[in-house]
Amino acid sequence: MTAPTTVRTADYHTAGEPFRIVAEGLPPVPGDTVAERCATAIGPGGSGTAPRRGPLDEVRRLLVQEPRGHAGMYGGFVVPPDDDGAHFGVLFWHKDGYSTACGHGTMALGVWAVDSGRVAAPDDGDVQVRVDVPSGRVAATVHRAQGRTTGVTFRNVPARVGARKVPVATTLGVAEVDIAHAGACYASVSARDLGLEVTRAALPELVRAGREIRAALATHPATWHPDGPLLSGVYGVILHEELPDTPFGPHQRNVTVFADGQIDRSPCGSGTSARLALLAQDGRLGAGEDLLHESVTGTVFTGRIFADGVTEVTGTAYRTGEHVFTADPYDALGAGFLL
């Protein structure tokens, strides 16, 4: 194992989805921008879900794999920002590699920045934490009341629709898939069109459908991003279902299957941004209206979209612990394993 023998983390969850933060002790990650550092982490010839092995990736594997992590773990390496306009940068990671966007992670980072004193915050009021991520500059506005954090709002890069009603053959039938870019590329499909409901009991079938759709769209031109391959290709598949509208706008439940079959326990921050762009194009979400977006675990985000395609997603994030992980050089399991 070439990773440091000791790694300190601060762990959070955002609407049930974990986020493990590493702010010190990392090996050097060359690059002038966060996007360049992400490309360095992935390595020449690698991809977001198949990175090349290297010192930084050894740390990722140590923290995400069992027995220190699990297949649903998510996290981020805190790195320098692109310039003085942001407080810091981050490289997002999961069990399969790296991602260019992560709304729930940005929300957790905002709360962590306030908790740790990295960004000063009032006892009552809001403070904005600006973060450079591989897809651009995003922000987390941390809401405070009586000395404690009560919520956090993620402001994403502009979202845009890539394609509508793309037919995709799956083992459950042909799905009509909508494609939208919101820091990463998401494919959306109605779960009920595949004979499924968004429930915990249906998760095996939902994951299978998500993996099939992602694979089928691997070379579709609508998944290409003009800024290049780092932001191109389907990152997540959102299987959603309609619930009764609220007085403030639409209400949906979803499960987002991302990377190689990983399940988002939250409603998915950047995935919610993608849903907002599609709903706005359909005329279902106008000025002053909100999407109430539920996850398969029952947690909720509230999202809204503005005329320029910028979205905001509001939820909560809480600290779950601080950890010191150790890699014993005599441990035959090394960085661990995944089941």
TrEMBL record:
SUPFAM superfamilies in the cross-refs: Diaminopimelate epimerase-like
Similarity section: Belongs to the proline racemase family.
Protein name: Proline racemase family protein
